[in-house]
Amino acid sequence: MLNRFISNIESGNLFNQKDNLLLAFSGGVDSVALAILLLKAGYKFDLAHCNFNLRGKESDADEKFCNDFSKKLKLKIHIKEFDTKSYMKIKKLSVQMAARELRYKWFNDLVKKNKYNYILTAHHANDNIETLLINLVRGTGINGLLGIPAKQNNIVRPLLFASKEDVYNYCSENKLKFRHDSSNDEVKYARNYLRHEVIPGLKKLNPALESTFNNNIKLFKECALITNNYIKQAANVTLIKSEDSLKISIVELMKQSAPGLLLHEWLSPYGFNSTQTTQLLKSLKTTEPGKIFQSDTHKLLIDRAFIITDKINPIETENSFTIKSVAGFKKLPVKIKAEVINDTTIIPDNKTVKLNFKALVFPLVLRRWENGDKFMPLGMHGFKKVSDFLTGIKMPLFEKDKVWLLVNGNGEIIWVTGFRIDERYKITPKTKSVLKLVIS
Q: Is the bond into 158 cis (omega within 30 degrees of 0)?
């Protein structure tokens, strides 16, 4: 086991003898085995133990065991207690997710403070199987079949080569004591159900299950290289991406050999599941523009030529803002620079407008547009509904919700911000005082 352990670290270039390591140490069989292997191999490391206070006296006994273990082997140990239940309620997280967030935040704090090179965890081959199966059950693309990475940023998992049975045998042969977490026996958790109910049945079909899965993962990684290269190439001609949104050309998407795969890979980071992407692909062939899909964080619209996603923003507490003077433009949700000038040069840019300052009646109002709003678009001599104007410029349905109107003190619409001013507020060569507004 020791020789395989050292060989795995060296061949994978996971870390070296000069590195300062931090081992996440629960006191369980996996972390005890990893600690002893690290000691025998001559690596420098300290321990970090989390007491999540979820199992009463059992949690306290785990902490004592870890403390005694470190003293016996003359290892430095960091110990921290967490109020996990309160954190769960505040953050609205499951037990597992709350513990994970607390654990890694503290680990990263220790890394910065003590200048550790890597955080080590004791995941093994059976954890890899469980992760892959969970991903398959929940729905995944090719990257979900790659299992747990041996090295990811500053987190390293040097035991992935070994099975759970290997770990138990190593502790037994070396007469190593360890703690047992009773919560790992509760099959109400998905991972525990797989561990105790599903995987033992699979091992009856294939006793070398861990080895088979490790080989499969290696093949999946090679498949992922090919697939990800295809996705990258397709993105160059099909995808427009910003920080919170995507714009996918429907024509270019449907030219691709695997449009369903592309939709899954591009949309899953925005919370859309495989069922939704399947329905979306079907809708592209049968539905008129305007159909909307929604995830927890984003909404998606099938527009005329594009699939458009956008982040769902919290409902604004205020939809109307009063502007008492030119200086009041500095305090708006829309970033608008305002200044009074005497330059009447026309600027052909909807983000920059010049208004007849003398026609303005303060206070002005910046508000969301409403059904029934009308204005006289620049260049016209009749009124048009704002809703019809936005439809006329082919604005995507949910983009309309973001449009603000600048309204005069007399109730007249001055500017559909970012798009068109009202004819009644345009400047002429005779205009003496100009309000210049620039959306930044």
A: no
